[in-house]
Write a structure and sequence with these properties.
By secondary structure, the protein is mainly β. The chain has one helix at 7-24; strands at residues 32-33, 37-40, 47-50, 53-62, 70-77, 81-84, 92-100, 103-104, 110-111, 115-119, 127-130, 135-142, 155-158, 173-176, 186-193, 209-215, 217-222, 225-230, 234-237, 243-248, 253-260. It has one domain: Sandwich (Jelly Rolls), CATH 2.60.120. It is built from one helix and 21 strands. The strands form four sheets. It has a seven-stranded antiparallel beta sheet with strand order 1-2-19-16-21-15-14, with no helix packed on it. The radius of gyration is 18 Å and the shape is globular. Bound molecules: (2S)-amino(carbamoylamino)ethanoic acid (UGY) and manganese (II) ion. (2S)-amino(carbamoylamino)ethanoic acid binds next to strand 20 and strand 21. The site of manganese (II) ion has 4 residues, from loops.
Length: 266
């Protein structure tokens, strides 16, 4: 049954577990915020209103205040709400990934869990109707265009329609949710590891990451720290932080991860 639970059910469960834990050990959390990475675990989530998104409560897990050039938040709709593109944000592109419930996009496209939408900067006509009690992950970023590459299109799709690749020298299964076209300045990857599988490359790179572990558990290396992680945990990785993941437990570890791409690191 655990394998069928959505990440939000796991987040809920660990928040209530943490209440009983806190009653014996107040102040304890697995969250850590360092100069070059952050781990934000469910017992630390703080929900707030989002300007321009009525009836949406959002727990911001990563923002430029941490040093990132993007934001990542977990959002919850208390009742049905319609949103227009990226709202009133200037030059901001937005990516939405449905975790629970349903979001209905343009042309009545229904986004159920695993469904996603990319909303290009300046898109104000596309209406998204977010059903009551839906939970979704949002990434926002100031769009960085590239001369001669045009602007990215609006995309509404589902991860199950995305081709699975196994990158050279690795064993994990990778879905790139966005096209590789140079008009995009980031991509969102969904990565699956069987228990016992791990990243071969002990990565160090200029790109930033915003990660939510959707299922499973394992050990994340961040800088010099080896940290136990479980579904519901969010991680910010700053440029050049050494990073590695090894999957443990009995079910597939799946994470969704933001990565800036296609722009000169200079
Ligand atoms: O593509 C990546 O950089 C990805 N493999 N990084 C990661 O999983 N930490
Ligand atoms: Mn990486």
């Amino acid at each position: 049954a655990a394998a069928d639970a959505t990440v939000y059910e796991q987040i809920r469960a660990s928040r209530s577990r943490s209440w009983s834990f806190f009653s014996s050990l107040p102040g304890a959390t697995r969250s850590v915020v360092r100069d070059n990475y952050a781990l934000v675990t469910p017992e630390s989530h703080v929900y707030a209103d989002l300007p321009g998104w009525p009836r949406i409560a959002a727990a911001c897990l990563i923002s430029p205040a941490m040093g990132s050039h993007f934001s990542m938040y977990l959002a919850f709709s208390s009742s049905e709400v319609e949103v227009k593109g990226c709202g009133s944000l200037q030059d901001v592109e937005r990516f939405i990934y449905v975790i629970e419930g349903e979001v209905v996009g343009p042309n009545d496209k229904r986004l159920q869990p695993g469904g996603f939408a990319y909303i290009p900067a300046g898109e104000s006509d596309a209406i998204f109707s977010i059903k009551e009690s839906s939970v979704f992950l949002v990434y926002d970023r100031q769009y960085q265009s590239m001369a001669g590459e045009g602007v990215p299109p609006l995309i509404v799709d589902h991860q199950d329609n995305i081709q699975v690749e196994v990158p050279d020298g690795e064993v994990f299964r990778l879905r790139r949710l966005l096209p590789m076209s140079k008009s995009f300045d980031f991509n969102i990857h969904v990565m699956d590891f069987d228990p016992g599988e791990f990243l071969n490359v002990k990565e160090v790179h200029y790109n930033q990451h915003g990660l939510l572990l959707l299922t499973g558990m394992g050990v994340y290396r961040l800088g010099d720290d080896y940290i136990p992680v479980t579904a519901g945990d969010a991680i910010y990785m700053a440029p050049f932080v050494p990073q590695w993941f090894g999957a443990l437990g009995k079910e597939i570890s799946r994470y969704i991860i933001y990565k800036d791409t296609n722009r000169n690191p200079l």
